[in-house]
Amino acid sequence: MDTGADVDDGSFAAYLDPMVIRSARQIYETYYSVHPELTEPPLGVAINRVTHRGKLIFTRKPALLPQECFIPFDLIQSTAY
C-alpha cells in the first residue's frame, strides 16, 4: 500500500534482491545499446520480482502489480560500478 511517502534509496536498497537489481540494470543496458541516442535518463525500471521482466519508466512512477517493484535509476546507476 502506497502511503505517499518517499523512500530513501539507501534504506530501500537493503530490501531488494540483488538479482532483481542486476536484472533491472541489464534491462537498462539493453535498451541503451539499442537506443544510443537516449539523452534523458529514465526514472527507473518497473520489474517483476519473479520473472525479472521489466520496462524502463520515463514519465512518472508507475502503478505496480503485486509481484512488481520499482527500481530507481539512481540505484541502478550506483550499483553498476
TrEMBL record:
Protein name as catalogued: Uncharacterized protein
Origin superkingdom: Bacteria
